[in-house]
Amino acid sequence: MAKKRSYISTVLLIFFFAVVALIMLLPLILLLVSSFRAGSDLMRYGLNFNIDWANAHIENYKLLFSGQNNYFVWYKNSLVITVAQLVLALFLSACVGYGFAMYDFRFKNLLFGCVLLVMMIPTEIIILPLYRLIINMNVMDSMWGIILPYMVVPMLIFFFRQYLSGIPKDFLDAARVDGCSEYGIFLRIMMPLMKPSFAAMGIYQGMQSWNNFLWPMIVMRSQNKITLPVGLQSLMSPYGNNYDILIAGSCFAIIPILILFACFQSYFIEGMTAGGVKG
Amino acid sequence: MQKKSIFSRFLYSQKAAPYVFVLPFVLTFLIFFAYPVINTIMMSFQKVAGGEATFAGVSNYHTLMNPVFYKCLKNSAFYTVISCALMIPIPMVLAAMLNSKAMRAKGFFRSIMFIPALTSVVVAGVVFRLMFGELEGSFMNQVLAFFGQDPLVWLRKPVTVWITLFILCLWRWTGVNMMYYLSGLQQIPEDLYESADIDGANSLQKFRFITLPLLKPTTVYVLTISIFGGMAMFTESYLLFNGNKSPNNVGTTIVGYLYRMGMEQNNIGIGCAIGVVLLLIVMVINVIQLAFNGTFKKGE
């Protein structure tokens, strides 16, 4: 009897989650299906599942790859900025997190309070003075304007510190006795030990940079320098063949991430739940 | 062997090392955070035109006392409150259901629910703007037609705008919040449920008296990030309305108004005054938050 009841609840639960999962995937399926339709169709009839499969075509993707538009310029810009920001932010934040976790020094608590303060204040508040600062520093319309203000990420500092606090400090003393310098300890001993946290934090930061919209939109002015999200947004007005590229381009922007997600699921979940509802 | 200079010996000493490690943070904090924050506060009392800035007293704040700004404040507050009311119970219940013993293929469904979080806000905005389009054939209007309803102009009237914004929020973040709750649930010891079974508690009672209280730290964390995310919401609205221009300001938020004043109308003084108001709101929330439970020390 008890067994039968649990069997029924299993079926009900699976059915329930199947429905939820379908709803979750629906917008993306809609996007994918629509990418095989002409953009003019979309403009006239709206985004829906009424697709005439006989007339489905891959013209949109051909256009995307034809090089007659800026799509892959944006793609490349996003890629370059993401990688540069990722490498800088990971390394520098790891240094800072390591400093906080492994040493005792004056002003430590005050400085860590500052880290928490930055985490607690939405960056949108200071966007205007930051914009002026970027102009004065002469890095407008360059990738450094996007990267410089967000080179050291409080969230990463926080989690690196957390991670490192689990590693005994005896490690350090042993290395010091062996004649390793303070920086050597960090570079040669600690960095390899931090690998798992680098993976999770790398995904957190990578997703942040790749999807970042507001700040790159403010900093970048030239059509051939903007990043992919900003570029896609600029296609939202229904002129010419904008919609053809918009829909196919949106699909093509998600696919690499989905593939990465399929391969490194646990890191993704660990990394992205570190960040929370932001961005 | 070459003798090291005093400077490099100092640099390599155990005393100096921590400062070298935290230096990148100190520098970026001072240049890209402290300075802009002070600047925001200063400029909020100034009239900034071109390169010239003149002291203007509280006139910027005076200008802010207008119906549009009040509407933006209300919009942000409303979005924050409702999104918290949705984004805590729903993921919590889903996580509890997914975590139940009778459930199968947990990993599979967990991953599927997480996928929306991988899409950028821009792609999500594109799809939602088109799904909630005003054409008869737009997906949501087709759904309405299926239930025998007339098509709606979704992104024009307040009620439907809010429905769209909350569905977008739910769609993107349910999976992430559910993940927080799943990891919270996994930390609850199994024997608590077993002894409740012996006492004859039903599943509802178990949820109410064991799960709910023990998930409190998770709830506090999710609440915190939802409040900050909600108060700073801007891009969702920007993309849904294809620009910072919702009809009659139905979807304009505080940050949206800041952007409009400071960036689009180049009225930096007023933009900064809005920034200061938002800063004060966030600080008040922080103080309340810390007074209640000292979050962000989570796991310390």
Uncertain runs of chain B are: 295-300
Strand content of chain B: under 5%
> SSE order of chain A, as H and E?
HHHHHHHHHHHHHHH
Strand count, sense and closure of the main sheet of chain A?
none
Low-confidence stretches of chain A: none
Helix content of chain B: 55-70%
Give the end-to-end Cα distance of chain B, rounded to a whole number of Å. Answer: 46 Å
Question: Biggest interface, and residues per chain?
Answer: A-B, 95 and 103 residues
Distance between the termini of chain A: 49 Å
Report the structural category of chain B: mainly alpha
What class, by secondary structure content of chain A? mainly alpha
Order of helices and strands of chain B: HHEEHHHHHHHHHHHHH
Number of helices of chain A: 15
Q: From the structure provided, what is the oligomeric state, counting identical versus distinct chains?
A: heterodimer
User: What is the average per-residue confidence, as pLDDT of chain A, rounded to a whole number?
Assistant: 90
Outline of chain A: globular
For the largest beta-sheet of chain B, the strand count, sense and barrel status come to:
2 strands, antiparallel
Compute the gyration radius of chain B: what is it? 25 Å
Number of strands of chain A: 0
